[in-house]
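FAQ

Q: What does a record look like?
A: Structure on top, sequence underneath. For example:
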């Protein structure tokens, strides 16, 4: 099934009456780039978490966030005496030299306790048993993210396939201009000959005309483009992670469309080529977000 590279998942777990929230976010990227944005996970556990996320999510810029909401007696808070004293000395120095020198110093304490870094809250350390519950929550958040990816991937699949179908429809529209295009080329050459009053040797002229028209033939390009479209649809449906391959197929489709445009020599076909290029650019843009 088609997956998007963007996704979001979260999970919660309760450890010793403290509620932990794990959130995982992924964005599109060429490789797996995992960033752990929390101090709750011990350093020695980070490698295992990274490996699990890469193995499970395959590709993308992946960010893991974790926070804890401590309850009641488990809330471990401490006052940083050095920081508090530093703030107190600075305030006293300012007050002694200013118009508020008679202000009672005891009134400063409530304000000082609200200053940055005075009161510290330390997250509790996870024991071996706690870690098992915490890692299960990481797995649950990863599963939720994968479900999100699948839902968005289904939308992406329908979108890119509809655009591939439009390119195939454009190829069908080119057929109606084929005979007219060849006849227009012949008439243009005849007109130029009449302008310069030249009467070529007819048999040789017809041979050269055939060679010239063969150089402008676009049947091979149309066949290859149809094959690429078919390969694109087969790849997105049959491979687990088709994103990179779809990008390569889209490049090949672009080459065939450009060649058709350069050989067209017909205003109607050129308009259709522009439409195909527009659809192809949308396909390329969406394929970048397919896992």
């Amino acid at each position: 099934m088609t997956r998007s590279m963007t996704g979001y998942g979260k999970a919660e777990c309760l450890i010793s009456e403290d509620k932990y929230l794990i959130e995982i976010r992924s964005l599109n990227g060429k490789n797996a780039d995992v960033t752990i944005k929390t101090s709750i996970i011990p350093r020695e556990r980070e490698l295992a978490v990274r490996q699990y996320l890469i193995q499970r999510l395959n590709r993308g810029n992946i960010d893991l966030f974790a926070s804890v909401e401590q309850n009641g007696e488990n809330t471990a808070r401490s006052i940083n005496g050095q920081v508090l004293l530093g703030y107190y000395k600075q305030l006293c120095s300012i007050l002694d030299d200013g118009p508020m020198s008679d202000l009672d110093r005891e009134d400063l304490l409530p304000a000082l306790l609200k200053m940055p870094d005075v009161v510290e809250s330390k997250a509790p350390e996870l024991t071996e048993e706690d870690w098992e519950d915490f890692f299960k929550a990481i797995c649950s958040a990863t599963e939720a993210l994968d479900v999100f990816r699948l839902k968005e991937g289904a939308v992406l699949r329908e979108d890119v396939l509809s655009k591939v179908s439009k390119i195939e429809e454009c190829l069908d529209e080119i057929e109606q201009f084929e005979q007219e295009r060849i006849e227009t080329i012949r008439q243009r050459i005849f007109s130029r000959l009449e302008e310069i009053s030249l009467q070529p040797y007819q048999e040789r002229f017809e041979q050269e005309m055939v060679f010239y028209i063969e150089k402008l033939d676009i049947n091979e390009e149309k066949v290859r483009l149809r094959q690429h479209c078919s390969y694109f649809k087969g790849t997105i449906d049959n491979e687990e992670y088709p994103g990179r391959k779809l990008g390569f197929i889209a490049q090949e489709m672009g080459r065939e469309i450009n060649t058709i445009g350069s050989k067209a020599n017909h205003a109607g076909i050129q308009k259709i080529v522009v439409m195909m290029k527009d659809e192809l650019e949308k396909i390329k843009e969406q394929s970048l977000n397919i896992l």
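Q: Is there anything notable about this one?
A: Residues 155-287 form one domain.
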